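Notebook entry, cofactor series.
This is the third protein in the set we're modelling with a bound small molecule. For this one the ligand is adenosine-5'-triphosphate. I'm keeping the input format identical across the series so the outputs can be compared line by line later. Sequence and SMILES below, as received.
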Amino acid sequence: MVMLRAQGVSVRFGGVQALRDVTFELGGPGIYALIGPNGAGKTTLFGVISGGVRATSGQLWFGDRQVLGWKPWEAARSGVARTFQITRAWRSLTVMEHVELAAVASGESRGAARARAAELCGSVGLSDVQHRLARELPLGQQRRMEIARALALGPSLLLLDEALAGLTATEAGELVQLISALPSRDICVLITEHVMELVMPIAHTVLVLDHGVLIAVGPPAEVARDPTVLAAYLGDAHVTP
Amino acid sequence: MTPVLMPGARRPRPAVVRGENQSSASGIVGPVRWLLARRNRPVLVGLAFVVAGLSPLVVGGLGWETVSFQVTVFAATSLGWNLLGGYGGQISFSYAVYFAAGAYGAGVSVTSFHASPWVGIGAGVAIACLIALITGLPLFRLRTHYYSIATLAILEVTSLVVSAASPLGASGGLEIPITPYGLGSLEFSPLNATPFFELGLGLLGVTLLGVWWILRTRTGLYLRAIRDDPVAAEAFGIRTTWWKAVAAVVSCIPAPVAGGLYAMAALFVDPNTVLSIPFSVLIVLVAVLGGLGTLWGPVVGAALVITLQQNLALDLPGQASGLEPVIYGIVIILVGMFFSQGILAARPIVATALRRAGARVKGVRPW
Ligand SMILES: Nc1ncnc2c1ncn2[C@@H]1O[C@H](COP(=O)(O)OP(=O)(O)OP(=O)(O)O)[C@@H](O)[C@H]1O
Ligand SMILES: [Mg+2]
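Returned structure with ligand:
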């Protein structure tokens, strides 16, 4: 069954056409990379999928439900979890409380949520700092907190917005390993990234956005050779020798 | 050889031995330390309430009890306010309206229906909850500062309506007639303020317990998240409008009860007092000065602000009595300057100072 299907989705912010007639589908558990240069519309597409950003036209199915225009909380409760490009930690909550909140919000009891939060903090390597305020942690740990928090919702679709940005090579490597294990837990991961080299090895499908237009979809090796993609990344001057 | 202590180095603490073979000094230290431990906090609080409840036997006096009663009334109202304002981040000025609902409810049930004021207080609670709900649901869609302004408008409208309503005594106020004394009629000898003080203390205790419990449930967690970042809260399944409305309804409950007691203690209620902007600001001020979003903040704030305000009114000699608002204002500015996060935020500083000063008191932690 198709997990997510977008049909002709367009988004306009005043004079900016952030997404133009975007059509694609995510089949099921797996890792999908959404790449594209700055301002391509990646975060906007995440906003449409997880609610919160209004599409000007198009259709969006999650499973067999038409969901375009749903509210963020509806998306969260239906199994769509996300992280934020600029991390959004709650100022007065500890790491543990962040994860616990998501677990409670997904319907677990307080006790069960606490146990699960502790387990998830462990699985992203935050056990040592789980009682610290999340805001006080370095970026790498805040990003891992965001992943633990998203996983606590028990999502079937996980949207990771530049989850690797600003991390050291070691941190990024660890996180890539963690992410690549998620499909085996029946989770479909859609991850945005600037640096193709980081996600290419783990992605089974790559979607390329440029100026709001989906210019290529396919296996990493194919997309990496696609002349339109190369042009988008390197500039038109490099296409014609 | 005695170890040389570097300046600032910790003195090694003598191990406190539990049991009978202690000197009389450490015989006190043991229980005190047990009482001050964080996990025994409920026992300490319970004890404090028992001591406060018995205090009229010792300190007595009409003036003292009247002021203490006012402290409990404002502390309870502000504790409710703090749940929505301090923890939920929604600054409301309409708690005076909820307060008035109970005050007028109690008054009208006596004057118009010859019923017990408790009936009116119950009705006041219901009305306050209803107002909180029907104003909250549309208003919480507004950004926070627009919400605050809208609550001011609600206060003004209510004040206008009440000032024109003759069954409520209009702008002149509602005088509550004297009826036989008793707990049911909420009237007692005017020479004895103890019953109202005890009732106020009871209300404060129940409110504290209620707020403490709510903060432990998921509601407390959600409210903090909504205050800190509502967008992220929504992204994790929290319907912010709904939870803010829940908080608004629950947090208004102490206000009408406090208002009912307040009106019965004065046997009078008028819109120029309870439905005025200064009155509604006072409810907010008490929580802000004590410490926004802290359990004890409103209690500390009420104790400070109300005691100061009332004692200034009572104690200043004739000529100086005009200075009352000036002194009151200066103190509030000073608190704002030096404790910008509320008095309770200074706790760690005070604790460190006490610990340094009292290092000789064998490791008793003040907090
Ligand atoms: N709320 C908004 N209001 C107006 N314009 C917006 C808004 N959000 C995004 N845009 C614009 O829409 C376009 C797409 O932005 P978006 O953030 O989706 O890009 P992105 O691919 O995530 O970029 P980056 O790699 O920098 O994160 C940009 O031109 C941006 O300026
Ligand atoms: Mg982006």
